[in-house]
Automatic annotation (TrEMBL), chain A:
The lineage of its organism: Bacteria, Bacillati, Actinomycetota, Actinomycetes, Kitasatosporales. It comes from Streptomyces kanamyceticus. Residues 40-360 form the Aldehyde dehydrogenase domain. This is Aldehyde dehydrogenase family protein. The keyword Secreted does not apply. Keywords: Oxidoreductase. GO terms for molecular function: oxidoreductase activity. InterPro entries: Ald_DH/histidinol_DH, Ald_DH_N, Aldehyde_DH_dom. The keyword Oxidoreductase applies.
UniProtKB/TrEMBL annotation, chain B:
Residues 82-302 form the AMP-dependent synthetase/ligase domain. It comes from Streptomyces kanamyceticus. One of its GO terms (molecular function) is CoA-ligase activity. It holds the Pfam family AMP-binding. This is Phenazine antibiotic biosynthesis protein.
Length: 453, 352
């Protein structure tokens, strides 16, 4: 069995209290050490005392770690073994894990551009900059230690804290207990690449200790559902990363048929497990043909074990899969099921099941199901009209607006609760390194100061 | 307090608590609704399972009802209460005889660990209605030391934590640590008696850790659980100069059990009870059967002395069952942890 140690400032730490992680059929795969509260407190204290690497060294180390993560044996696992383990444990299709590996490496290599892009145009990096002679704004961190309660839905979520590392923070990651493999591998690589044991830590904990990590850090980021967002909404030190509720809007004057591929990709790309996957599809006019086309296309996706090269759907143990099925039916009551109405459980016969896509048609853009985001391809198709306005489009991570209406686009771009707007034939999961995903993290981590020397 | 065979001791206790001349009004009245005759049906430890768990009745009963008549007016009883985690506190009475015996036994166990005598104590444990504070005072005195006491109200802390007011809990703990700091800085403290949360908070203050390292030769912990990993860290990384001695007890146990001396650093913390007066059983909560040695189960506590009869009390704690020392009564327990709470299996929407 694979030992996954705590990676603290004193090096790897193996606790007596461990949690066994199983693959989908229930075979034990790894033992995850859980850090007690006292360990966490002491670890964050030691990290606070440590000094950050110089900027150039950080950038170089991130790139080096990214390459090692994607290509080298780390903590005893080859990249292939790592990818297979993640897929076998989480049910994320192997091809999605493989793409994520490459994506993480690229994100690490390009982190310089991301943080440069985020810096206010008038600010410089250092008081040593010649411009500080006459007085200038200098970009400085708001703290020293950054904590992350990471998500386990997709390996690539771990790109989300690279910015903090690049900007000089010591970073403590509490992994998801569902998928600690990616952060363990990544953090091992980052330590070896130059961040050392005090620059970055992996602090797996049980639920009771989790908050201690946030409490003893200067700033933190937490992934979770609406409950998590509500819990931390009043805390200026914490940046909650809530549900994506990504959406597609198609207005009447545009032709949807040529972009069905884009719609399918928006809903089901990457296994449909991401916050950037479309939850709602709003159609001006009759949404039925769009729903029918989506249902036909998504119905063709095969149910396969996650480690199969051709797998495109997420897999989970059969019992929770059935609970999701029941939950979905309850929530979908009163809607028209185009796909998944007779069940979403694709029984694989080995105690696990692929979660099959679902497409439901709503009769109002204000139906509450539109905000229901699930960890598999599941879309809610609703009618939309100009009277409804942008209200149904709020609280959206990525909005693909297939429209030519510049006034409408103005409104969408100006709307504070829509994080990203893609106009036209672009799938919602599209991302590019250097561009913000939910704003630049640096907007939260940094502030400007006037320096004159 | 003399050694006896188990059966003889149990029968003697039944005679004391259920004879009209010696028993307490509570038990004499309660005997009628037991459905068995303690004087004839309870012959040995294994028969204690016949008793119902009566601790919940101790929330309302008048404490004078609990005083065995056999003491006459010489009981010199003290009243103590449980922590009140599960509602209104439960009340018991400790006779002077019992308290003295309990303190003497505790002190002998500390000797076995090499805890120094003739040094002063700093006790950051609950006082007031809780017995542990009185144990601290009297044990320190018996061993030739003064006791510096910090007042600590666990009920208040539990209440504010339950309400999610962590800032207030933090402020209260800071307040306690500040007082600990004054004593550590100004007094010659040789033994520190504290709850694990207090030790954890102390560990965050480098200046206080330094004082403990310089002055304190033994740390006695108890009152709440200390998980094995945290115990290792406190002992091996934080307070490296002090001998650690743990206790697992409670007001409803009428005292404490004490960590077994002489075990290696990698062995679990084993607690031996003050047998035959206090004995443990480790049972399977589903079947009620005693689990094999080395297996985990739920702890059942029997307290049987002239002071009180509180048997078959199922604690919320789980532990590994360990053989008692020298063929003594009941079980020893290791790796005591509170019963795990199981999250519901309801689905949570969202992708994270």
């Amino acid at each position: 069995m694979l030992p996954l140690d705590v990676l603290g400032p004193g090096g790897p730490y193996r606790s007596r209290r461990q949690e066994t992680i199983h693959d989908l059929p229930g075979n034990p795969v790894a033992n995850l050490s859980l850090a007690p509260s006292l360990y966490v407190t002491r670890a964050l204290k030691a990290m606070r005392r440590a000094s950050a690497l110089p900027f150039d060294a950080r950038i170089a180390a991130l790139a080096r770690a990214g390459r090692a993560f994607a290509t080298e044996t780390i903590a005893g696992l080859t990249p292939r073994e790592y990818q297979h383990t993640v897929s076998a444990v989480t049910g994320i299709p192997i091809s999605v894990v493989r793409d994520a590996t490459a994506d993480i490496a690229l994100a690490a290599e390009r982190i310089h551009r991301t943080v440069e892009n985020a810096r206010p145009a008038g600010a410089v990096d250092s008081w040593r900059d010649p411009r500080a002679k006459d007085g200038t704004a200098v970009w400085t961190p708001r703290g020293a230690v950054f904590a992350v309660h990471a998500a386990g839905n997709h390996p690539a979520v771990h790109q989300g804290w690279f910015d903090a590392l690049a900007l000089g923070y010591r970073v403590a990651v509490r992994p998801s207990r569902r998928e600690p493999f990616t952060p363990h591998r990544l953090i091992t690589a980052l330590r070896e690449a130059g961040f050392g044991d005090e620059g970055i830590a992996l602090l797996p904990t049980d639920h009771n200790v989790a908050d201690d990590i946030l409490r003893h850090a200067d700033l933190g980021m937490v992934y979770g559902g609406a409950d998590v967002v509500a819990k931390y909404a009043g805390d200026p030190r914490i940046l909650p990363q809530g549900p994506g509720r990504s959406k597609v809007l198609i207005t009447a004057e545009t032709d949807w048929e040529p972009i069905v591929d884009t719609l399918v990709e928006s809903i089901s790309g990457g296994g449909g497990v991401g916050c950037v996957n479309a939850t709602g599809v709003l159609v001006e006019g009759d949404p039925s043909p769009v729903a029918a086309a989506l249902a036909e296309r998504l119905a063709a996706l095969p149910s396969l074990p996650a480690t199969d090269e051709r797998a495109v759907l997420p897999v989970m143990p059969i019992d929770p899969a059935r609970r999701w099925d029941t939950h979905l039916r309850q929530r979908a009551a009163g809607t028209k099921a185009w796909l998944g109405g007779d069940g979403i459980v694709g029984d694989l016969g080995d105690g696990s099941a692929a979660l099959r896509p679902a497409v439901h048609q709503l009769d109002s853009p204000f139906a509450e199901q539109l905000g229901m985001e699930l960890g598999f391809p599941c879309a809610w198709v609703a009618p939309w009209d100009r009277d409804a306005g942008i209200r149904p489009l709020r609280d959206t991570l990525v909005l693909t607006a297939v429209t030519t209406d510049a006034d409408l686009i103005d409104e969408l771009v100006a709307e504070p609760t829509i994080s990203n707007v893609y106009i036209g034939d672009h799938p919602t999961p599209w991302m590019r390194h250097g561009l913000p995903h939910d704003g630049y993290l640096a907007e939260f981590l940094m502030r400007t100061k006037t320096i004159r020397r | 307090m003399v050694e006896r065979t188990g059966g003889e001791f149990v029968r003697e206790m039944m005679r004391w608590h259920f004879s009209p001349e010696t028993g307490s009004p509570f038990w004499l009245k309660r005997a009628g609704s037991l459905g068995f005759d303690p004087l004839t049906d309870v012959r040995d430890f294994d028969d204690l399972g016949l008793f119902p768990n009566v601790v919940d009745e101790l929330r309302d009963v008048g404490v004078r009802e609990l005083i065995p008549r056999g003491y006459g007016d010489e009981h010199r009883a003290s009243v103590y209460e449980s922590g009140g985690t599960t509602g209104q506190p439960k009340r018991v009475m400790y006779s002077a005889e019992w308290h003295r015996g309990s303190v003497e036994w505790f002190s002998e166990r500390l000797d076995a660990h090499g805890v120094p005598r003739d040094v002063d104590w700093l006790s950051a444990v609950p006082t007031g209605p809780h017995n542990v504070g009185a144990m601290a005072v009297d044990t320190a005195m018996l061993r030739g030391g003064l006791n510096f006491s910090i007042d600590l109200d666990p009920r208040w802390v539990k209440k504010v934590i339950a309400e999610g007011r962590m800032d207030m809990a933090e402020a209260y703990t800071d307040h306690l640590i500040e007082q600990v700091g004054y004593i550590l800085a100004s007094q010659d403290v040789g033994v520190l008696f504290a709850t694990p949360p207090m030790l954890e908070r102390l560990a965050q203050r480098d200046d206080l850790v330094e004082l403990v390292d310089r002055k304190v030769r033994a740390i006695v912990w108890g009152g709440t659980h200390l998980d094995a990993d945290t115990r290792d860290l406190l002992r091996d990384e934080v307070f490296k100069n002090a001998t650690f001695v743990g206790g697992y007890g409670g007001t409803m146990m009428l005292g404490t059990s004490v960590e077994r001396p002489g075990l290696g650093a990698d062995e679990p913390c084993v607690f031996d009870s003050f047998a035959p007066y206090t004995t443990f059983r480790v049972i399977d909560p589903d079947t009620g059967q005693v689990v094999p040695y080395g297996e985990r189960g739920q702890i059942v506590v029997h307290h049987m002395s002239r002071s009180a009869l509180l048997v078959n009390n199922i604690e919320r704690d789980f532990a590994t069952r360990i053989a008692p020392v020298d063929g003594g009564f009941g079980d020893a327990v290791a790796d005591v942890t509170p019963v795990a709470s199981f999250g519901d299996t309801a689905v949570v929407e969202g992708v994270y």
